[in-house]
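#onboarding

Welcome to the new folks! Below is a worked example of what a typical request in this channel looks like: someone posts a single protein sequence, and someone else replies with the predicted structure as tokens. Don't worry about understanding the tokens yet, we'll cover that in week two.

Example request:
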Amino acid sequence: MTRREIFLGASALVLAPMAASAQSAAMIDYEPGLPERLLAEGHTVLLDFAASWCSTCRAQGRIIEALRAQNPAYDAAITFVRVDWDTYGQSEFAILLGVPRRSTLIMLRGEDELGRIIASTREDDIRALLDTAVGEA
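Example response:
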């Protein structure tokens, strides 16, 4: 075995867990039935109703990512699901949840809503929502 083969093999062993960790921390794209399945499996789910063109949604997204980077407990306790507003904003799912607009964040566990934020980009508000899920886990 050459040094290059040994290096590549060792690199794969080191990088694979990092890639898996990064992938598990990504926001999952919504598809019909996904939140219900996650909730039935016992996950706490943050639904992020967002549009790519929405500046408030982008600001919320940046804050969520920064808070997740600061506190790994969020990723351990919460499954993050992004719901594309342009595709699902008027869906039966959004109507059932009473989502009034894009830039709405909803935290769910089981059949309970733990909290909701509508159009706020205050870091303290978003942190409090995430902390509610971690504190109740």
